[in-house]
């Protein structure tokens, strides 16, 4: 019996490589991290080439993509290049009347082995590439080549889509394709359905979705006869991906539904009602709706697990505060976990500012219905830390705001009833659960959970990543949010850049303030500052040297983005801004220094703050009306949208100036144009996801493991995700431990591992 978990060296025969050597395909495949038969079968094609009709050499057209069937006439010897380092080999093909050549380039002679394997003199091959001429001789540029089996119908072969695999210089796509074919042939001979291809999906799901069997689906995607067969195979594997992932999420959700939690309800004359009475503005319809959803779940005897999301300025913090006050009314405490000290301090200021005397419970002048709000961070002095720890442990503090310091041993609560996680993507499930376990120590059950995200998430992404959480969306902005104009400023036009600094000076003259954001702290930093998310590369990384490419080279390293230390000097010395009160804000400042800068900026004592992305979320200075992002083309769409959300918060019209050193028609230029065109965070999040692709969403594969999403696209396959989610939830409700579906349980255990599990752990 064929063991798919055996090393490829025992599954694939050694063969001649066209250079007279006995080649080992397993060694080539190891360059792709493929070690076993299962690894190889799940190394799926990245795209397919439609070869079309066969073309005679004399009928070729220069610049046209063509497919020819020809006999290998000659394989030249590796020759060193004259003008630069590297080697080349010329292969000559003939269709019986005319000849065509193709040239391959490599860094060293021994690298030609995999490339030249199909070129055995006298053999018939099918080659697809771009036709060209040089000195009157036809050439085929960067061809994809495969041998034509004896007796095969070349015309039928030309109609079949040609799979192209993720490959490297040391293991070209042809080697993968041939090796997969060998393995599929062996499975067919040995009865593949019994060789590790038992059906993992329930029979009613397979029948209801009209899915191919597993091995037939792999055959269809690796060796499709036509596009229809390919689509059927992809449909099967795509749905299986979605179903296994949704089952894992449904299992995690089911594990919390049976847990006990203390119900928390607000009282008619408690702190929550007092806060609502004092609100100087009405809640939006969305805030009321989501607030009612949260209140209903807090009143249940099972822990709430809810994701709260909304666009920039939609009022997520207010909704979370009302939930925390409901828990305080119910006799419990709430902990707000923030990823940075700057954000934690900002939350403390905004909460105490909103509550006023309600945040001084137990103190002289405090409202008797009130509570205490305390801060706990890692940099606090010993005396302040002891005071906060005592307030939390005694129950005196109804709301505790903190950073990772909340997770440390020694931090205790009297009755923790709600955990609010801000910027949930910065924390893992383990960290979240550490804090929640502090609530179970009192015997009142598992604390409720409210996770917040500052980045809007497309609905299908939320279904894929947060299937175990109920999702609430704030889809309405409060009145009074001013318009923010976004303008892209070319950095290679000095007059435009000068106008940028003049704009800051004009706003300062009106008593307003400005942010200037940079991606790095110091000029000699190799990496971006903490929190900065670099945008996708301008183009895919150049592949290693391969057919038609020279050795070495590659894209020049881009100019490093400007740093805070550089830009602050520009602001302080530029004629327009030299007299402004300017300070810096970044993660390397001492906590007291960061607090001082933010407090002075919030109080209007500073005109300009030159900062890293520490100001991305949570920082609320209503008087800030202008933002300049230096090297904006180096940031992702969503992060730029979040940064832009820091201005226009106080009714003042805002201006966001994006300094860019890239062409408007480049990938980054198009990204910035989209940002200037719309303020719809959900639309921008969809564009960001489409640009980054799912590999960045769910994580890339560890070496030797399957990629998290291979065929499933969370945007374009929303219908598949919805069907899989509904079926998975129904199944788990009936069989919560998958006892009746051992094959599915094994699939979940084996596939939701590595980076996929790590990513799901971050949700």
Automatic annotation (TrEMBL):
Annotated spans, Disordered: 530-564
Transmembrane segments: none
Helicase ATP-binding domain sequence ranges: 297-474
Domain Helicase C-terminal: 496-690
InterPro entries, A to Z: DEAD/DEAH_box_helicase_dom, Helicase_ATP-bd, Helicase_C-like, NA-bd_OB-fold, P-loop_NTPase, RecG/Mfd, RecG_wedge
MF (Gene Ontology): helicase activity
Keywords attached to this entry: ATP-binding, DNA damage, DNA repair, DNA-binding, Helicase, Hydrolase, Nucleotide-binding
SUPFAM superfamilies xref list: Nucleic acid-binding proteins (SSF50249), P-loop containing nucleoside triphosphate hydrolases (SSF52540)
PANTHER family for this protein: ATP-DEPENDENT DNA HELICASE HOMOLOG RECG, CHLOROPLASTIC
Record-given protein name: ATP-dependent DNA helicase RecG
């Amino acid at each position: 019996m064929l063991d798919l978990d055996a090393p490829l060296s025992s599954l694939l025969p050694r063969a001649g490589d066209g250079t007279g050597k006995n080649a080992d395909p397993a060694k080539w495949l190891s360059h792709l991290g493929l070690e076993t038969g299962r690894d190889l079968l799940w190394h799926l094609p990245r795209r397919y080439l439609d070869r079309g009709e066969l073309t005679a050499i004399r009928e070729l057209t220069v610049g046209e993509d063509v497919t020819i069937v020809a006999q290998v006439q000659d394989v030249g010897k590796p020759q060193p290049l004259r003008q630069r380092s590297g080697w080349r080999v010329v292969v000559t093909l003939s269709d019986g009347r005319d000849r065509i050549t193709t040239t391959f380039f490599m860094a060293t002679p021994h690298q030609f082995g995999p490339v030249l394997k199909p070129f055995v003199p006298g053999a018939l091959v099918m080659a697809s590439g771009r036709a060209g001429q040089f000195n009157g001789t036809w050439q085929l540029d960067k061809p994809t080549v495969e041998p034509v089996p004896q007796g095969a119908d070349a015309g039928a072969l030309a109609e079949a889509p040609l799979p192209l695999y993720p490959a490297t210089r040391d293991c070209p796509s042809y080697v993968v394709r041939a090796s997969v074919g060998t393995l599929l042939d062996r499975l067919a001979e040995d009865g593949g359905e019994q060789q590790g291809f038992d059906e993992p999906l329930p029979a009613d799901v397979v029948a209801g979705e009209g899915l191919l069997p597993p091995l037939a689906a792999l055959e269809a995607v690796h060796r499709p006869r036509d596009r229809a067969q390919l689509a059927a195979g992809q449909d099967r594997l795509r749905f299986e991906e979605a179903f296994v992932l949704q089952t894992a999420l449904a299992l995690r959700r089911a594990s919390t539904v049976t847990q006990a939690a203390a119900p928390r309800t607000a009282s008619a004359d408690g702190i929550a009602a007092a806060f609502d009475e004092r609100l100087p503005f009405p809640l939006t319809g969305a805030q009321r709706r989501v607030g009612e959803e949260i209140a209903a779940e807090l009143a249940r005897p099972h822990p709430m697990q809810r994701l709260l999301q909304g666009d920039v300025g939609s009022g997520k913090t207010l909704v979370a505060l009302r939930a925390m006050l409901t828990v305080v009314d119910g006799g419990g405490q709430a902990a707000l976990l923030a990823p940075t000290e700057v954000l934690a301090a900002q939350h403390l200021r905004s909460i105490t500012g909103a509550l006023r005397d309600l945040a001084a419970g137990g103190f002289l002048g405090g409202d008797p219905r009130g509570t205490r709000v305390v801060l706990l961070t890692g940099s606090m002095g010993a005396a302040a830390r002891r005071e906060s720890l005592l307030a939390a442990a005694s129950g005196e503090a109804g709301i505790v705001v903190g950073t990772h310091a909340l997770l440390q041993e020694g931090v205790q609560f009297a009755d923790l009833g709600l955990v609010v996680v801000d910027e949930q993507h910065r924390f893992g499930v383990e960290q979240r659960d550490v804090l929640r376990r502090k609530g179970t120590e009192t015997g009142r059950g598992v604390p409720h959970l409210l996770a917040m995200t500052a980045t809007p998430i497309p609905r299908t992404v939320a279904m894929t990543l947060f299937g175990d959480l109920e999702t609430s969306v704030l889809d309405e902005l409060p009145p009074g949010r001013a318009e923010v104009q976004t303008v892209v400023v070319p950095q290679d036009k000095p007059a435009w850049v000068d106008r940028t600094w003049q704009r800051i000076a004009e706003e300062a003259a009106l008593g307003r303030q400005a942010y200037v954001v940079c991606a790095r702290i110091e000029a000699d930093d190799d990496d971006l500052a903490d929190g900065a998310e670099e945008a996708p590369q301008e183009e895919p990384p150049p592949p290693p040297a391969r057919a038609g490419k020279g050795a070495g080279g590659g894209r020049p390293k881009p100019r490093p983005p400007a740093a805070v230390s550089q830009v602050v000097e520009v602001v302080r010395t530029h004629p327009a801004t030299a007299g402004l009160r300017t300070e810096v804000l970044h993660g390397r400042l001492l906590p007291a220094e960061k607090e001082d800068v933010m407090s002075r900026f919030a109080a209007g004592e500073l005109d300009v703050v030159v900062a890293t992305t520490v100001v991305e979320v949570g920082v609320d200075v209503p008087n800030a009306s202008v933002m300049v992002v230096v090297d904006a083309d180096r940031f992702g769409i969503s992060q730029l949208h979040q940064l832009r959300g820091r201005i226009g918060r106080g009714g003042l019209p805002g201006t966001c100036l994006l300094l860019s050193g890239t062409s408007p028609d480049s990938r980054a230029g198009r990204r910035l144009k989209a940002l200037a065109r719309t303020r719809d965070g959900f639309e921008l999040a969809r564009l960001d996801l489409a640009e980054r692709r799912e590999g960045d969403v769910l994580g890339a594969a560890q070496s030797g493991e399957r990629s998290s999403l291979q065929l499933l696209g969370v945007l374009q396959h929303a219908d598949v995700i919805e069907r899989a989610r509904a079926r998975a939830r129904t199944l788990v409700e009936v069989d919560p431990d998958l006892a009746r579906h051992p094959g599915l349980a094994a699939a979940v255990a084996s596939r939701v591992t590595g980076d996929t599990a790590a990513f799901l752990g971050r949700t």
